[in-house]
Write a structure and sequence with these properties.
single chain, mainly alpha, 3 helical TM bundles of succinate and fumarate reductases, 8 helices, globular
Length: 225
């Protein structure tokens, strides 16, 4: 047991260990985003399709499935944020050598941007849970209603739309760098495929941004109700 605990501590305390944690949890979160976006876009098919999707999620394993997923995702998010912050701290503490000065400075700048965009996303997740899961604030005023109409009502409030779009911008800025970094950390990036990976990261980020922001914008414009 002590040996196992020691191994875990050594893995966590190493730079490569933290990078692997960020990469693996990043993959899980990216997969969640893809699935979440696919489900959310069902709102364009109408109330029945969207409500059936929501009912399916909440009915998994007699209601326990959605909580298992939530706890797992929150755990992955916690490890992702903690490891990223720890890496930034290590970068600041490390002495910059002349032969790697330029690359280290660039990495530090990117890390700083990732931290701030990540913290913005984290605050949005808390807000999003309060808004649509806990139904805190104005959302609570509508009482019991279908998931479809709850989303419609939520995005009829301009402040929700504005905050949502800002959070999606930060998310996609985070994804643009993060998705490419996953391939780098796992040793799957090379000079030959670097352009393809960067292009794929940009395309995925753009798809996520357009997909998620289209929902509040269309609702705010009154095109679906």
């Amino acid at each position: 047991m002590n040996l196992a605990n020691c191994s875990i501590c050594l893995f966590w305390n190493s730079s490569i260990g933290k990078k692997l944690i960020v990469a693996i949890t990043g993959i899980l979160l990216v997969l969640f985003l893809a699935g979440h976006l696919s489900g959310n876009l069902l709102i364009f098919l109408g109330a029945d399709a969207f409500n059936e999707y929501a009912e399916l999620l909440h009915g998994m394993l007699h209601g326990t499935g959605v909580w298992i997923a939530r706890i797992g995702l929150l755990g992955a998010l916690f490890l992702h944020v903690l490891a990223t912050i720890s890496l930034v701290k290590l970068n600041k503490e490390a002495k910059i050598q002349d032969y790697q000065c330029q690359s280290t400075i660039q990495a530090t700048r990117s890390s700083r941007m990732m931290i701030w965009s990540g913290l913005t996303i984290l605050s949005f997740i808390v807000y999003h849970i309060l808004h649509f899961t806990v139904r805190f604030g104005k959302t609570a005023e509508i009482g019991e209603t279908s998931p479809y109409h709850m989303v419609i009502y939520g995005f009829q409030q301009p402040i929700n739309v504005i905050f949502y779009i800002i959070a999606m911008f930060c998310l996609c800025s985070h994804l643009h760098h993060g998705v490419a970094s996953i391939f780098q950390t796992l040793g799957l990036r090379s000079k030959n495929n670097s352009a393809l990976i960067n292009g794929g990261a940009k395309a995925f980020s753009a798809l996520v941004f357009v997909g998620f922001t289209s929902i509040p914008l269309v609702i705010a414009a009154g095109l679906i109700e």
